[in-house]
């Protein structure tokens, strides 16, 4: 058994040595390298700067062309202002009443007075159902004459006119109340807004 291993190891070593020698023979160059030097021609480029004559062009700016003549006056079209295009107008009357009741006080250097009262927009839901009514509002007139914090005190019928009345009240303008030369806020100012449909 040991003899077989010894013979196999010896044969393997011989085969390995033979393969290494064969590879060395294949890689080796039979002819030694020779210094052949540089072959070919070397070109040297030299750029010569040539003198150039500067040519100055005299350019003149052309004047702009004269403006075109305006078109002659066109005749104005005739517009019939009496015509109504697809609009249905319903007679609606909205009354804005001023109520000085409540906590408002008129004593002092100057009374607060309404300057601008904007009529509210009649709600479409109430208009289509032919519903009339009123809203009683209470709010604060600020020192600048604007309306602040409108509150619905009473509405009849409820659920129809409150929103339109509040939006209109916020657009009201007042001459503020003056005490000792200074404008002051006035609370408890009431307004009754009546929504009525005209019989005409």
Observed structural traits:
200 residues, alpha+beta, four-stranded antiparallel beta sheet, two-stranded antiparallel ribbon, 26% strand, elongated
What does this structure look like?
- The chain has 200 residues and is of the alpha+beta class.
- Helices cover 20% and strands 26% of the residues.
- The chain has three helices and eight strands, in the order αββαββαββββ.
- The protein has helices spanning 2-27, 124-128, 162-169; strands at 92-99, 113-116, 133-141, 147-156, 173-175, 177-179, 182-184, 186-197.
- A hairpin with a 2-residue loop joins strand 6 and strand 7 (182-184).
- The protein is elongated, with a radius of gyration of 54 Å.
Strand content: 25-35%
Total count of strands? 8
Q: Unreliable segments (pLDDT under 50, ≥5 consecutive)? A: 77-91, 98-108
Number of helices: 3
Largest sheet: 4 strands, antiparallel
Q: Largest beta sheet: what is the strand line-up?
A: 1-8-3-4
The SSE string, one letter per element, is HEEHEEHEEEE
The helical percent reads: 10-25%
Category by helix and strand content: alpha+beta
**Radius of gyration, whole Å:** 54 Å
């Amino acid at each position: 058994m040991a003899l077989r291993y010894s013979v196999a190891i010896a044969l393997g070593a011989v085969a390995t040595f033979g393969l290494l020698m064969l590879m060395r023979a294949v890689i080796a160059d039979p002819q030694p390298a020779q210094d052949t030097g540089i072959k070919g021609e070397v070109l040297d480029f030299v750029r010569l700067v040539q003198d150039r004559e500067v040519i100055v062009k005299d350019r003149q700016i052309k004047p702009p062309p004269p403006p075109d003549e305006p078109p002659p006056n066109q005749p104005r079209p005739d517009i019939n202002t009496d015509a109504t295009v697809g609009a249905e107008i319903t007679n609606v009357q909205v009354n804005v009443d001023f109520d000085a009741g409540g906590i408002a006080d008129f004593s002092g250097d100057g009374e607060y007075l309404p300057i601008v009262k904007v009529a509210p927009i009649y709600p479409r839901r109430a208009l289509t159902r032919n519903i009339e009514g009123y809203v009683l509002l209470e709010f604060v007139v600020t020192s600048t004459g604007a309306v602040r914090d409108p509150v619905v005190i009473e509405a009849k019928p409820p659920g129809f006119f409150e929103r339109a009345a509040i939006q209109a009240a916020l657009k009201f303008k007042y001459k503020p109340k003056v005490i000792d030369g200074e404008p002051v806020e006035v609370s408890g100012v009431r307004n009754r807004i009546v929504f009525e449909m005209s019989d005409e």
